[in-house]
Amino acid sequence: MTIWINNLKTAALLGGLTALFVLVGSNWGVGGMTIALIFGGLMNLGAWWFSDKIAIAAMRGKEVDAQSDPELYEMVDRLRRNANLPMPKVYVCPHEAPNAFATGRNPKNAAVAVTVGARRLLNERELEGVMAHELAHIKHRDTLISCVSATIAGVLAWVAQWSFFMAGSNREGGNPLVLIVTVIFAAIGAAVIKAMISRSREFAADAGGAEIAGHADGLVSALRKLELYAGRVPLDQPNPAMNNLFIVEPMMSSRSIMNLFASHPPTEKRIASLERVRASLGA
Questions:
Q1: Taking Cα atoms as reference points, which of 82, 193, 205, 92 lies closest to residue 138?
Q2: 233-255 residue pLDDT tens
């Protein structure tokens, strides 16, 4: 059921992206709409097929294997067997901000990534909890919709800027109301998409990760550390729309009004939920 819902959401997001491009193109007549429709279709194809590669490239991830990083690779291999998953690609990202994410359009084309900062901050049991959480996202097939939503959120923000620029250079022609609506929709839409996609699935991935690891205490401890350091060490990545991919949202203040559009539920609620899972697992 969860997989079916995620696929439906993905289709809705891609359809919405096409509709937005057509709306923008309509400001320049039938020709503009045609070009926008073609461009929207290409963006859909790119978001579907290449969004995982875009995410890895944006984080400058370096693939590791059993020879280059046996500790991490063997940990992921053991956990993925617990989850009955194919072996994903494993990446380490050269960022001091401690974080991790999973990506890929399906379990056969999946990857997990962790930053250098997380490797340094977390002990073995905590890192195991984090990687199990990311494998749970892969098992639940959350990764495609996460990557697509991140790509689309970035496109929406770009559309807002582009439309604003074009409004200034096309004052005599076109419909200014359409441009204003497009800018507002694109700017707010990027935040709403992130909020819509990630919040409920994080609880499921936390619980699933605890089951895969066989314990919840590692992830509980890791979330406390990651939340603390996420507010101190900025994540150097070029696309804030990718925030929904990470295990904790980078640089997100718990008192910020932007929590209305936060892509993750509050960490304290995730920990409270995990405490219940820990009681059921007895670990």
A1: 205
A2: 888 765 666 777 899 988 643 44
pLDDT (mean) for 73-81: 98
How many domains does the chain fold into?
Answer: 1
* Residue 229 CB neighbour total at 10 angstroms: 17
Q: What is the DSSP letter of 87?
A: P
Q: Which one of the listed residues 128, 134, 227, 249 is annotated catalytic? A: 134
Give the domain extent around 88: 2-281
Q: Which amino acid is at 176?
A: P
Is 134 marked active-site?
A: yes
The span from the CA of 181 to the CA of 189, in Å, is 11
Render 90-154 in DSSP notation, one character per residue. EEEE--SS--EEEEESSGGGEEEEEEHHHHHHS-HHHHHHHHHHHHHHHHTT-HHHHHHHHHHHH
According to DSSP, the β-strands at 62-64 and 89-93 are antiparallel
Residue-wise pLDDT tens digits, 175-220: 566 556 656 665 566 556 555 555 678 998 999 999 999 999 999 9
Per-residue tokens: 211: 């089951």
